[in-house]
Amino acid sequence: MTARLFATRPLVVAALHLPDFARTRHSVAWLEDYAVANARLFAQAGVPWVKLQDQTRTDGPAASETIALMASIARLVRAEVPDLGLGIIVEAHDAEAALSIAHAAGADFVRLKIFVGGAMTAAGPRHALAPRSTAHRAALGRADIAILADVHDRTAVPLSSESQPVAAEWAEKSGADGLVITGASFPDTLARIAALRERGLRRPVLIGGGVTEENVAQALGAAQGVIVSTALMRRDAAPEDVLRWDADLCRRFMDAARAA
Fold this sequence. Notes:
Layout: H1 2-7, E1 11-17, H2 28-44, E2 49-53, H3 64-80, E3 85-89, H4 95-105, E4 109-112, E5 118-121, E6 124-127, H5 130-140, E7 146-150, E8 157-158, H6 164-173, E9 178-181, H7 186-198, E10 205-207, H8 216-222, E11 225-228, H9 247-259
Parallel strand pairs: 1-2, 1-11, 2-3, 3-4, 4-7, 7-9, 9-10, 10-11
Antiparallel strand pairs: 5-6, 5-8
Helix pairs in contact: 2-3, 3-4, 4-5
């Protein structure tokens, strides 16, 4: 699965955000319909990969109900949209939860936000997930689940002074299969990727945000892949609407990505 992910051209991952399970009043049936309908929209538009993204905030490990719902919904998406590659991310700082969900659902990758070093987040300090994630992946016998590791994620502030290229080198040596780089702006993202390449880092790089139909060609010239969501969303979606992403925007984005 790791090889299949990075062999995809163009490598486009759509982030399918789920509601916060602790706050939503939607039923499980509605959540299932929501996930499958939007995943199917992505697939029909030609998007090759989707990342199912939990947004349930917690000050500790992922709640048991979050793990259960994510695994169930992800497994359903895998069954209903089998041609779509699947990834997992959980809001909680919990590598074991993300990998266990991916294992149960047959997903291809996980995204881990603070893989090496430490960072101050809105929820407080967080420390490296690398040791726990690689050990748990080995215990599951699932070396085929790729780990995409954010390096100096823009939503957090590093707790130490290492440069981003140094942190990226740590991530490579600690077991990351791919790196996710996202700067404060699109030009900043490109500059950060260039600094990594100047250091000689060779892991595949995905841009984690700020990619649009207009700049995707430039993005794919600098990185192996992109993660996109907001640029593809419906502008007129109501809170109760099941379909939150725009099929036409998705098709145009993929046309621009393929042209690159």
